[in-house]
Each structure stands twice: as structure tokens, then as C-alpha cells.
Write a structure and sequence with these properties.
The complex is a heterodimer of chains A (175) and B (260). Chain A is of the alpha+beta class and 175 residues long. Helix content of chain A is 21%, strand content 34%. In chain B, strands 1, 2, 3, 4, 5 and 6 form a six-stranded antiparallel beta sheet that branches. A four-stranded antiparallel beta sheet of chain B has the order 8-9-7-10. Chain B is of the alpha+beta class and 260 residues long. In chain B, helix 5 runs antiparallel to helix 6. Chain B is built from seven helices and ten strands. The chains are: A alpha+beta (175), B alpha+beta (260). Chains A and B meet through helix 1, strand 1 and helix 3 of A and strand 1, helix 1, strand 5, strand 6 and helix 7 of B.
Amino acid sequence: MRPERGGDGIVDLLDRLLDKGLLLNADIVITVAGIPLLGVSLNAALAGMETMLHHGMLEDWDRSTRAWHLSQARIEPPLQVGEILFLGLGSIWHGRGTLQVWKPGIWYVTEKELLLWSREPASVIFQSDLSMIRGVIGGNEEVSLILDGGAERIRMDRPEQFCQTLAEALALPAG
Amino acid sequence: MDEGRYLYAIMRTDQEEFLGAIGLDRSEVWTVPYGDVAAAIHRCQARPYVSEAESQIKDWVIEHSYVIDVATERFGTVLPFSFDVILRGDDEVVRGWIERRHAALNSELERLNGKAEYTVQLFCDESALEEAILKEDQDLAAQKESIKSRPRGSSYLLQRGVEMHLRDAVRSRMNQLEEEMGRLIEDLADEMKDKPRKTILPDERFKGMRLVANICCLLSDESVAPLGRALDDLNSRKGLAVRFTGPWAPFNFARLPEES
């Protein structure tokens, strides 16, 4: 038999183009939540298929693939006990050292903490107890997070909602 | 908005060349070389291609893939980029990007030269497999037969037993088949990867069949025909069907050096 590419080849293409192939580590733009994340580590699994599936872009394309994807065991972020108030894709500016990048991940705002989680490799990119956060300033593309030790530049897919949620959470009694 | 360069692939050429208006949304695709290594790009804004519409994404994926095919035909094996990888900046930024990784890209092109990626999937018809097992295992077949002559109720446990036995036999047969196919490929491939058993939408031929093995491999051009012949045997067995796809650019095998 000979290898073919006809017929249902589009599935094989999607599988490769959205999930595989070369990715870059710096100075790039990828699709995350419709916002350009510049200079992210594309080894992060937020690229490709995961992103598409996350945003339901392939909703009706292949439900079974989606179901499979969702069923894959994954490591959950080490959140302290508390209700999750906000969940969304985003990134944080990593401006130290020679590699200046937006590191992508998933923002979690809970009653206790703010955390940016990378699924692959599973790791905490940023974490702060709410008690350490002094304020949050919303912007068009970027949000400034004011901490005891200084400020962090962060981004997310729904900055307004993020800022509002965080501001409300910060007003909660520390506990 | 800043300008950007959408990246399709890395290939071996020292020429700056127009490949045609064959990119995403019919963008003009050019090669941008540094030394003898070049990137196929189109000029765009530093903004990712995003769409809520599946058909749009499908079109883009097909266009991206077409550029890779054209580049492969023209320059030999390329290192394909994932969809939607965009460098912020102009052609000089692309050149600089290649320059910083020239040695690694060069050796990667060398390593993959004359090779391509293929996927081999083995599907099996479970009921045909069951039949074959019953044909070989006379005892089991006899037990199954005897159930019919017993009064209802008393046959229930026996039936469960036979079913479980049969299911185990089917499962171990599937494992054997998976291993057998793995060995066939291992003998001929430069590299192979077990792909997750994702549900792949199979065409009509494989409807109702079960995916038993799903292997992605890197093959030298001269190994393709021998593998095809080796798979013929599996494909011709009753209840089995092999899906052999390719050649694809080495999406699963091209590697970039880690950035320090």
C-alpha cells in the first residue's frame, strides 16, 4: 500500500498545524484569547490546539476530539482553599535577565490569592496572597499590579472583569 | 500596529525568492535567507490570525499547509512552523532570528534531509476478531454454543464468563497487533512516536472500527515502499484495515534549540 493524503486529510493537517511544528521562544506573537502575547514561550501548551479548544473555536469541528482533550488528566494548580472568582488566559511580563518575555498562563483569582498557572510544563509562574496586593490599575491592553515590593505588568483576556473581580476580592476581610 | 512576519517553514536556500500569492488570505509568500538557511514568510501586522469561524481556520490551515508543500517541493524537506507563529518586526528581524540559530537549523535541515513524516493507523473490526478467536479456540466456541441449549437463567453466569473470556482474548490480540505493527515500523523508520489515541475522524472505510495503533514515524524516502509492502500483509488480514498517510513535513520531528 502507498501512503495517501487525500480524503479526510484535513484532520491530519489540523492535528499537525495546530498542535505540532516549530514554535519560537521569543519575539513572537501567538493567538491567545484574541490578544497578542508578545515574546511568550511557545513551548507553553497554550499555543495551538489547546488554545483553539479552550476558546471553543473548534466547537463543532470535532466534538470527540474536544471530549478527549478535556478528559486528559492534567495537573491542577496548587490553589489554597477558596472559591475561584476569576479564571482566564493571560500573561505576565518577565523583564529580568536577558530573556524579556510575556509568560503565558491561566490567571486564577480566588478569595485568598492571585495565581498564574502554566499547564505545560505544570508550574506556577506567579503567585501572591491577596494580602500582599496593594492595588490594581486597569489599562487598555495591560494591567498594573501594585505589590508591596513593586509593580508587575500583566495581561489577560478580560481585563475589565479581572480588575473588578480583584478589586472586590481585595476588599474582602483578610483571612 | 507594528509590522510582523508570519512564518511557514525553514528551508535550505540562499535566495530571496517570491513563491507566489499562496499564503493565508492569498498573502505573498517570500523566502528570507540568512546564509544558506531561509524562512518562508508573508508580511503582516504583528497580530495573530484569530477567528471564531471554523471554516476560516480550516482555510488558513489548508493555506499554511499548501505553502509548506510548495516549499518542500522546491527546496526539499523543510522545518514546518505551527499555525499562527508571527515574528514581530521586519525581514531583518527574521534574518537575525535565523542568524542566532543558524548552526542548529542547519544541522536540523541536514538531519531531516530526504525524510518525511508519515502516520500509520491500524483499525480493527472487533466482531471479526472475535470470530477469528472462536475459530481458533474450540473450547470457547463449544461453551458459547452450549449456552443456546440451556434454559434461560441458568445460562446467565456461563454467558458472562464466556463474554469476559472473549473480551480478554480480543484485548490481548489487539495488543499483539499493536506490537506487531510497531516492530514493522521500527525496522524501517528513523524515528517513531506513539501518538495519543485521539479520536481521528476516519473515512468511510474505517467506520465502526476500533483504532488499535496510531504511530507517527520519520521515514527516509527509500523506506516508504518497503513499509507499504510490510503493511500490506496486515491490511489484507480479515477484520483489519491500515491507514497509511503522508508524506507530511516533519511536524512531529523537527526541533528547535532551546533558547538560553
